[in-house]
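Work Package 3 (structural annotation) set out to generate three-dimensional models for the target panel prioritized at the project kickoff. During this period the team completed the workflow that converts sequence records into discrete structure tokens, so that structures can be stored uniformly alongside our sequence database. As a representative example, we reproduce one entry of 199 residues exactly as it appears in the project archive.
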Amino acid sequence: MKLYFAPDTCSLAPHIVLRELALPFTLVRVNNQSKKTEDGQDFYHINPKGYVAALEIDEGSILTEGPPILLYLASLQPTAPLCVAPGGMDYIRLLEWLNFLATELHAGMAPLFNRALPQPVREGFEQRLFQRFAYLENTLRPGLFLQGETLGLADIYLYVLCGWCKFFAIDLAQWPALHAHYHRIHARPAVQAALLAEQ
């Protein structure tokens, strides 16, 4: 498998999952500005949407969008603790979390990367984001993950999104449970290896 990534983007989530599951893969860095890969390819030829993540699962077959990539990777190691078997309520809850993270956090944070955003508009996005953080704060239990005692795909996605707070001068410590969740995942060897590889 080949993961197309750019540093400081959501492609870090599948990168971490690949390492957590010890799956064989190669990394291809994409320049977000030029839309060129490190070996000079036009990234639009790989993913016409023009953004990471993209996963080449076999010659010429590309999977895009973070949550489906995470679910595909989990399907390769269905008995791993990180994964939830399809069909049961735990799997439905996983889909619920991934949808929440993609639509409420990820989509809600993306506009904040626009430095030209007028301050009142920025504050509106931040207020909505803080409401979502408050929901997570009230949901997370000390020492646990989103779906209980075991680290899951949604936890890794949440970790990546919370990592973006540094770009917006948002202090995650305002939400102690969310802050602790972030640091517990940050300390994992697979996470540290992924961060090092993306430098």
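Residues 89-188 form a domain with the Glutathione S-transferase Yfyf (Class Pi); Chain A, domain 2 fold (CATH 1.20.1050.10).
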